[in-house]
Amino acid sequence: MTAQIIDGKAFAATVREKVAGHVTRLKEESGITPGLAVVLVGEDPASQVYVRSKGKQTVEVGMNSYEHKLEADTSEEDLLALIDKLNNDPAVHGILVQLPLPGHLNEDLVINSIDPAKDVDGFHISNVGLLGTGQKSMVPCTPLGCLMMLRDHHGSLSGMNAVVIGRSNIVGKPMAQLLLGDSCTVTIAHSRTKDLPEVVRGADIVVAAVGRPEMVPGDWIREGATVIDVGINRIERDGKNKLVGDVDFESASKVAGAITPVPGGVGPMTIACLLANTLTACCRANGLAEPDGLTA
Ligand code: GUN
């Protein structure tokens, strides 16, 4: 069997088009332009690339982008003061503080100081609790993107066995909640899981989010399963730099029914979902109908 490739790059383009269409209508009908504020503290090169990309795509879908670049030694007090200002700014509908933060800043404190209604990352404890209890929340972007691709591929996920490998707050845990919300039977596997290969072999859906290059080989995958690879790992092979996922694509794509590639799978969906979340937050803030198909 050769797996169908789930093209995240193309899917993300359709999500962005959908968002852009809604933004155009919103501007025409109500004069409101959704706005996203991104806060970057310090000069981590990977974070700078992400933030630039977020700003560019925000403008491309017709939204306002507000970038706040702060020095690496910015005090917690100053950062919290900026977040307070953004919380109270009606032109800002979404706030994202790029992680990781420099070590002297308390990430939990900072994230939980964002107005939950503007928390487009879905990391605030209120949003985590709302998601866990099946209530309307802001949903973390990467798991939301994975869910959209799974729903698009399968239609209903009801009754499927899903194994999420990785238990991070950003991906693994919210991914498991979303799959449970769609009536999957969900297992969260991690570094201490006993007989991980056998656990993964029981899965109709495998979501790999561990950050270990090509950790999941094809012989762990059940014939015909759907594999969503969240990993983005930089490795050197044959003297060249290469991006690989947490799944060994070569062997897994021979047994899976469908698989996301790296790059071009989950990656592009994350920013597309950030834009979708900003639009959703803007609609909710203004008591307007939310767009269909862009939330969980
Ligand atoms: N750093 C890496 N991924 C993310 C993300 O999804 N959100 C934020 N805020 N920071 C990140």
TrEMBL record:
Q: What is its EC number?
A: 1.5.1.5, 3.5.4.9
Q: What is this protein called?
A: Bifunctional protein FolD
According to the UniProt record, one GO cellular component term is:
cytosol
Biological processes, Gene Ontology terms: L-histidine biosynthetic process; methionine biosynthetic process; purine nucleotide biosynthetic process; tetrahydrofolate interconversion
- What CDD domains does the database record attribute to this sequence? NAD_bind_m-THF_DH_Cyclohyd (cd01080)
Residue span, Tetrahydrofolate dehydrogenase/cyclohydrolase catalytic domain: 6-121
Q: Which pathway does the UniProt entry assign to this protein?
A: One-carbon metabolism; tetrahydrofolate interconversion
PANTHER family referenced in this protein's UniProt entry, alphabetically: C-1-TETRAHYDROFOLATE SYNTHASE, CYTOPLASMIC (PTHR48099:SF5), C-1-TETRAHYDROFOLATE SYNTHASE, CYTOPLASMIC-RELATED (PTHR48099)
Give the family, as the similarity comment puts it. Belongs to the tetrahydrofolate dehydrogenase/cyclohydrolase family.
Report which reactions are catalysed by this protein.
Answer: (6R)-5,10-methenyltetrahydrofolate + H2O = (6R)-10-formyltetrahydrofolate + H(+); (6R)-5,10-methylene-5,6,7,8-tetrahydrofolate + NADP(+) = (6R)-5,10-methenyltetrahydrofolate + NADPH
Pfam families, per database record: THF_DHG_CYH, THF_DHG_CYH_C
Role this protein plays:
Catalyzes the oxidation of 5,10-methylenetetrahydrofolate to 5,10-methenyltetrahydrofolate and then the hydrolysis of 5,10-methenyltetrahydrofolate to 10-formyltetrahydrofolate.
- Give start and end of each Tetrahydrofolate dehydrogenase/cyclohydrolase NAD(P)-binding domain: 140-284
GO MF: methenyltetrahydrofolate cyclohydrolase activity; methylenetetrahydrofolate dehydrogenase (NADP+) activity
Task: Write out the entry's keywords from A to Z.
Answer: Amino-acid biosynthesis, Histidine biosynthesis, Hydrolase, Methionine biosynthesis, Multifunctional enzyme, NADP, One-carbon metabolism, Oxidoreductase, Purine biosynthesis
Q: How does it assemble?
A: Homodimer.
Sites where the protein binds NADP(+): 166-168, 232
Q: Which InterPro entries match?
A: Aminoacid_DH-like_N_sf (IPR046346), NAD(P)-bd_dom_sf (IPR036291), THF_DH/CycHdrlase (IPR000672), THF_DH/CycHdrlase_cat_dom (IPR020630), THF_DH/CycHdrlase_CS (IPR020867), THF_DH/CycHdrlase_NAD-bd_dom (IPR020631)
